[in-house]
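Final report, results section. Input specification for complex C-07:
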Amino acid sequence: MAQTLVVLVAATGAALAAALGVVPLIGRPRPPTAWLAWANALAAGMMLAGAFALVDPVPRAAALPFALGAVLGIGFLYGSRAFSQTGELALNELESAATEYGYEVLLVASLHAAAEGVAIGAAMASDLGFGIFIAIALALHNVPEGTVLAAVFRSRGVGTARAATLAVVANLGQIVLAVTTFAVVVAAPAMLPWALGFAAGALIYLVAADLLPDSYATAGPTSIALTVVLAIWMFGLMHGVLRG
Amino acid sequence: MSATAYVFYYGMITAAATALGAIPFALVRNVSPRVVSSSNAIASGLMLGACFGLVAEGTELGAWQTGLGATAGVAFILVAQRLLASSDVGFGDVRGAGARKMIMIVVVMTVHSIAEGVAIGASFAGGLTLATVITVAIAVHNVPEGLAISAVLRPQGASVAACAWWSFFSSLPQPLVAVPAFLFVDAFAPTLPYGIGFAAGAMVFMVLVELLPEAYEDGHRGTVSLLMSLSLIAMVAFQRLL
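Structure output:
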């Protein structure tokens, strides 16, 4: 029970971190679009490194269920994006005034949060310390992601405090899925490689589908590639310091 | 046959296996921009997946050394890109941006094989009993690397034979470096985490700065993401099972 509480607190902390994303936007309702591109690239590097870390606890014998879980995760996101017709949605449109666009961004953000929730829950079930590390990494990831979300809201006339609240609300699914995934995997340990795979596949897919394409188009490949590498490097440094 | 000759021949077998990666591209005739995009997406996934394995292996030997090597690998690609962009390079009949990418993938994968050659030589030093197992494992692992190289070369108009040749070429450092690494294992083994890190940094950055941006330019992002993530996972699972 105490462990479930740890999952709940860590996942809540990670979701709350999205509110910090609003800080660069204080007094700046319309930041330069290159900022959003770099914020997305930072988020992408963290997510990619997180997916890499999820492969680590998978034993060799579980490589196949891991891969099948990953295919499910990729398929789930590809399917839900195709079904909701948000497959080509750009996450950096500050000019669009369409009501639809706001809802679509919220939907996409909640899908991101869902994948991150499964990642936190699965990592916690594999090892509590590792799970806390993943939760911290994804909390950091949520900050630039929160900046992008808040910028979309701010440009539509939403105030700073409300934009921060909405960024957190979009991430609430993370808490539910982290706790659920943890509970399921603890009850049925054979599900662990499936859950780790699902999360890793989903995170990789989201990096490729949402975070990178518009960033390249806005800020150019070199600065985006360097920013992604910087985030991976930060993740590695954190791993070295926190996990030895 | 002497132990040194064994290391060399076994290294040649693993290099030859890389050429097998060109075979699926015998089927690709009609090279539309869509095919180029999909090929780039698949190559990106395979290379990123390979880096997952490299980083895991490198950090086990020395995390800081791997990180340092990776930073040098990123710098290497940045410099190579600048140098190749400022000169009018050709690769076969191809010139300009296409040729630049072809040269870069061959150079990156060849450099990456140097680190693998050190790994082969160092592991052979542990005794010849496991030699066959190691050789088969590395040979099989080389096939998707040939696939990644061919996925970049073929859409630019290279023949299947040329794809096979350059795939083989990229793995030549394996037998060539494995021999000295085997003979002087005490001197070579400490360089391994740096080399592995360098290869991983160069490959990740090459994917991020060249292959993925081009994949997005000519393809649907849903398709690119699907192919990239599936081939990444396939590579990771493949390496885990070996």
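The first strand of chain B starts at residue 90 and ends at 91. The mean pLDDT of chain B is 84. This concludes the modelling results for the funded period.
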